[in-house]
């Protein structure tokens, strides 16, 4: 058979500009001996969500959106086409057992970081419950952890009413001794979105809590700079946990718990860039996106852009 002039059997018909490199072109699957700057893993689990959620579909949706972004930063006047991302794939979750799935998530993240083939890592949830096993795995590998959490909610609900859910990861981490009291920073806590009991719990534990009113008055980048500097003197590494419902529903309609009065997309992106520029920031998870609730992939695209602002932050 001869070659086709315009057909590529088995491949999508996608326009290719010879001068443009898309982010998805820099992704390679994990193979033994392969090294890269960024490690990527999907944590497709949302059965612990207290509201109906198909966030398990988010890793696939976010990956697909990476093809809409180039590797060139005009603001930095730098092309990041040589930054390699190693994709470790998605964790195979258990069909019925939550405990078994949490164990699998922990084991898979631990096995990924134990390979020591990447400088930094991005983890795609899933609901916010995946942060509990993920942060535990990083903490065991790298030592004392500081966490910056973008979230409308405290996520410190009691475990008596429903066990481990997407509303309990930071209570589980605090009470399990995986995070020390003042090593957790919460950004974007929204009014009329939390119970008094849980607000008091964070205060009693010594968590640094910044509400949307605080962000409005101080500015999110200023807060990030101060807290990163404080944490860097206390911990071995810093982990960023981005619950997309911290973002206003106008910019993130694909979250199960949308609401008004949250961050703008620009506030999210510039705060991630500021945090990721610090040398102690090692990993970031992105959680709580339900593609079935999204509109034109607005929320998944914002998540993909968040990945870029983490990966390509000027250090």
TrEMBL record:
The keyword Manganese applies. Keywords: Histidine metabolism, Hydrolase, Manganese, Metal-binding. One of its GO terms (molecular function) is agmatinase activity. Binds 2 manganese ions per subunit. Pfam families: Arginase. It comes from the Bacteria. InterPro entries: Ureohydrolase, Ureohydrolase_dom_sf, Ureohydrolase_Mn_BS. Gene3D superfamilies: Ureohydrolase domain. Its cofactor is Mn(2+). Mn(2+) binds at residues 128, 151, 153, 155, 243, 245. GO terms for biological process: L-histidine metabolic process; putrescine biosynthetic process from arginine, via agmatine. Belongs to the arginase family. This is Formimidoylglutamase.
């Amino acid at each position: 058979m001869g070659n086709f002039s315009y057909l590529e059997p088995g491949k999508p018909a996608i326009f290719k500009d010879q001068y443009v490199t898309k982010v998805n072109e820099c992704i390679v699957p994990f193979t033994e001996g392969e090294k890269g700057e960024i490690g990527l893993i999907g944590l497709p689990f949302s059965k612990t969500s207290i509201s109906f959620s198909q966030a398990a579909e988010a890793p696939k949706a976010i990956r697909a959106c990476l093809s809409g972004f180039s590797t060139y930063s005009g603001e930095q006047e730098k092309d990041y086409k040589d930054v390699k991302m190693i994709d470790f794939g998605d964790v195979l979750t258990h069909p019925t057992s939550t405990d078994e799935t949490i164990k699998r998530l922990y084991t898979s993240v631990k096995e990924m970081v134990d390979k020591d083939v990447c400088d930094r890592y991005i983890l795609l949830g899933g609901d916010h419950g995946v942060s509990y096993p993920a942060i535990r795995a990083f903490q065991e590998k790298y030592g004392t952890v500081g966490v910056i959490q973008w979230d409308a909610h405290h996520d410190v609900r009691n475990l008596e009413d429903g066990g481990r859910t997407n509303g309990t990861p930071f209570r589980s981490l605090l009470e399990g001794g995986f995070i020390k009291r003042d090593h957790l920073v919460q950004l974007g806590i929204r009014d009329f979105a939390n119970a008094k009991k849980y607000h008091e719990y964070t205060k009693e534990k010594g968590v640094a809590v910044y509400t949307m009113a605080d962000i409005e008055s101080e500015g999110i980048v200023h807060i990030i700079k101060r807290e990163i500097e404080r944490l860097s003197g206390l911990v071995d590494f810093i982990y960023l946990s981005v619950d997309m419902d911290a973002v206003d529903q106008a910019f993130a309609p694909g979250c199960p718990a949308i609401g008004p009065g949250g961050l703008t997309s620009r506030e999210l992106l510039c705060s991630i860039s500021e945090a990721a520029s610090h040398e102690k920031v090692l990993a970031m998870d992105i959680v709580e996106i339900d593609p079935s609730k999204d509109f034109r992939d607005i929320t998944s695209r914002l998540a993909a852009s968040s990945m870029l602002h983490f990966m390509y932050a000027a250090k």
